Amino acid sequence: MIVNVPNPVIEVHDLTVIYNRKPALWDADFTIPKGKLVGIVGPNGAGKSTLIKAIMGLVPLSSGHAELFGKPLDEVRQKVSYVPQRESVDWDFPASALDVVLMGRYRHTGLFRRISKKDRNIAFECLKKVRMEAFANRQIAQLSGGQQQRVFLARALAQQADIYLMDEPFAGIDATTESAIVDLLFEMRSEGKTIMVVHHDLESAYEYFDWFVLLNTRLVACGPKEEVFTQDLLVETYGGKMNVLAKIGELIRENTFPVREDNSPLR
Ligand SMILES: Nc1ncnc2c1ncn2[C@@H]1O[C@H](COP(=O)(O)OP(=O)(O)O)[C@@H](O)[C@H]1O
Ligand SMILES: [Mg+2]
Description:
CATH architecture: 3-Layer(aba) Sandwich
CATH topology: Rossmann fold
Bound molecules: adenosine-5'-diphosphate, magnesium ion
CATH superfamily: P-loop containing nucleotide triphosphate hydrolases
CATH class: Alpha Beta
Number of domains: 1
Strand order of the largest sheet: 5-6-7-3-8-9
Oligomer: single chain
Structural class: alpha/beta
Strand content: 15-25%
Order of helices and strands: EEEHEHEHHHHEHEHEEHHH
Distance between the termini: 24 Å
Number of helices: 11
C-alpha cells in the first residue's frame, strides 16, 4: 500500500543502498506531503537509518534518487535538517552544549562570518525548547545520553529548516522529556514543517504520527496512519518477530489500534 501525493516535499524514487553486496534498502519508492509528522517504523536492521542517510546523501546509492522540494539535496540543503542516531556520533570533542547548537547556525552565517548575538539568542532559545538551557556551558562529553540527544535536537531546531529527518530522537530519554519533545514536534507541524522520525515503539507511534513509512529492507507501505498502520501491514513489516506481534495483539485487544473489519484480532 503506497499512497502517492500531489506536490510532495519529499520524493524517493527506486532508492537502493547495498553494503558489502547485502542490500540494506531495496528499491524504495514513496512521496511525503508537506506538513506531516511521519513515523519510519520497522524491525532492527530494516534500513531505517540507511533510508534517512540516503535521503541526506550520506551513503552511496546503488540506484535511485531522492528529491526535496522537487530538487536535489544540494540545492536545498539549508532547508533540511538531520538528527543522527546518537550512537553514531563521536562525543569526545571539546565543545559546550551551546557550541553544538550554534553549529546549527553556520549554514545561515557561512563559515567565515562571525556568530552574532542574534545567533546566540536563537541557539539559547532552542536549548530552552528541549529543556537544556541549564546545561548551556556544560561540555557535551559530560552530558548523559538523553541530554546529548536533546542538544542534538536543539542544534537541528537552530537551523530553522523546513524538513527535519530525525533518527530515534527518543532513544535514552525519560518519559517527561519525550512528551515535551512530542509537543514540540506537534508545534513544528502546525508551523508547516515536515518531519520524518525513526521510531521503534509501536505503542506510542499511532498517537505521535499522522503518516507512516513501514520498512523492512523493502518498503512495505507508506501513507496516512489510518490506511497504513494496520494489523496485516505491521505483521508484514515485522515478519516473524513474535514478541512484537504479541505486542500488536495486545494493543488490538485494548482497542487502541485500528483493525480492518475483515481481520480478526491477532491472538
Ligand atoms: N556502514 C555499514 N556497513 C555495512 N553494513 C551496514 C552499514 N550500516 C548498516 N549496515 C547494515 O545494513 C542494514 C540496515 O541497517 P540500518 O539502516 O542501520 O537499520 P535500522 O536503522 O533499521 O536498524 C543492517 O543489516 C546493518 O547491519
Ligand atoms: Mg537505525
